[in-house]
Design brief:
Elements (H helix, E strand, L loop, with lengths): L16 E2 L2 E2 L2 E2 L3 E2 L5 H30 L4 H20 L5 H21 L5 E4 L2 E6 L4 E2 L1 H19 L7 H20 L3 H18 L3 H22 L1 H11 L10 H13 L23 H33 L4 H25 L17 H18 L6
Antiparallel strand pairs: 1-4, 2-3, 5-6, 6-7
Helix pairs in contact: 1-2, 1-10, 2-12, 3-4, 4-6, 4-11, 4-12, 5-6, 6-11, 9-10, 10-11, 11-12
């Protein structure tokens, strides 16, 4: 990994200059240059595509619930505009600012996760308590945690305080992860816990944690997690069993998965046409976790493949930014954000196609969610800023 190849660097604190050392050798001072416009173009393309598909998928539900077919689209569009403004602003802020703020941001995020669990403060939807109510928007603190845990772990690794090649050196990171994941599981936010765990472990591996202990830990923890779901949550265990046979109980637990599969099958090669989905009238909340099935139905295999290729291009470009990053910290942050994009996209598409049990994870840029789209675009701003200091060896 590019991150582990660099030694901890001295970084000029000004917004214009950054210095790195490669294996202890100083390299010429770097000046902020042009951002990665190819990456920005892919981001905008995915965002526009996501908004168009959200409008199509959400119109029937919005009209039925609120009497306004544009209700969900307009809210998402407003949050997207705020996110774009935040992305462009953050792309001009030197990434070392987040390095200083990472511990404080981690504390704030943990406090927010605790607040979600307090009755009267946290808000529940569909049996899950994940949101904080504000006069403007319902915030989902778990979305903030995804980039923050990346920045916090990157800062710890860059400091060299703990040797990740030794078991003991990994314990502080594991401890933080257990606290965060414990709070999220108390919110019954399994999908968010999976994504954050994946992001945190990805940064740790890039920073030097050997893969073998991670695999051993996964072999131990996955069966334990399955047993926990079986004993503690009948609803989630029903989701696991319905995944094994999605058409067994089509009127109950398997209903959403089955309707999604009908949508995918109905699309064929070229789709029914934009806005012509039939299953969006039957699929529960088609504008959320299962929006990819509507993409398949309306745009067909060809359109779905294009969307997947756009995500692949974005992730590859993010990894390239990480490989060309000027120092260890920025490289690890870029790797963490790339991991977030990859894990969440793959998991969502796998759920939509019934390749894994339904975990309720959203599709980046496409699924409805104000906090998610704003936070995601601001993460893209961080990557754009890092790209401005890229080193071409």
């Amino acid at each position: 990994m590019a991150a582990s190849a660099y030694s901890p660097d001295s970084v000029n604190r000004s917004k214009k200059n950054t210095t790195r050392r490669i294996v202890g050798k100083p390299v010429k001072t770097l000046r902020a240059s042009y951002m990665d416009y190819t990456f920005l173009f892919i981001v905008v393309l995915l965002l526009v595509s996501g908004l168009v598909m959200l409008l199509s998928a959400s119109a029937p539900s919005a009209n039925r619930i609120y009497g306004n077919s544009y209700y969900f689209f307009l809210k998402q569009f407003l949050c997207a505009m705020i996110g774009i403004a935040g992305m462009l602003f953050i792309s001009r802020i030197n990434y070392n600012v987040y390095k200083k703020l990472a511990p404080n941001m981690m504390i704030v995020c943990i406090i927010l996760l605790v607040c979600v669990l307090i009755p009267g403060i946290g808000v529940s939807h569909n049996g899950s308590r994940r949101w904080l109510n504000t006069p403007v928007i319902e915030l989902q603190p778990s979305e903030f945690m995804k980039p923050v845990i990346t920045m916090y772990f990157a800062r710890l690794i860059d400091s060299g305080k703990y040797n990740l090649k030794k078991i003991g050196g990994n314990l502080p990171y594991v401890g933080v992860l257990l606290i965060v994941l414990g709070l999220m599981l108390m919110e019954t936010h399994l999908s968010g816990a999976i994504v954050i765990a994946g992001v945190g472990v990805s940064v740790m591996i890039a920073g030097g944690t050997p893969i073998k202990p991670v695999l051993i830990g996964a072999i131990i923890l996955i069966p334990a997690a399955i047993f926990g779901v079986y004993t503690l949550s009948e609803v989630r265990w029903a989701r696991v069993t319905s995944f094994l046979d999605p058409f067994r109980d089509i009127r109950d637990e398997s209903y959403q998965v089955a309707q999604g599969l009908y949508a995918i099958g109905s699309g064929g090669i070229f789709g029914l046409g934009l806005g012509r989905s039939v299953q969006k009238y039957y699929l529960p909340e088609p504008y959320n976790d299962f929006i990819f099935t509507i993409v398949c139905e309306e745009l067909g295999l060809v359109g779905a493949t294009v969307v997947i290729l756009l995500f692949a291009a974005l992730i590859i470009r993010a990894v390239r930014i990480a490989m060309n990053a000027p120092d260890t910290y920025s490289s690890l942050v870029a790797i963490g954000i790339a991991a977030h994009l990859a894990i969440q996209t793959i998991l969502n598409i796998a759920v939509a196609t019934s390749s894994v049990p339904n975990t309720g994870v959203s599709l980046p840029f496409f699924s409805y969610g104000g906090t998610a789209i704003m936070t995601l675009l601001m993460e893209m701003g961080v990557l754009l800023n890092i790209s401005r200091y890229s080193v071409k060896d």
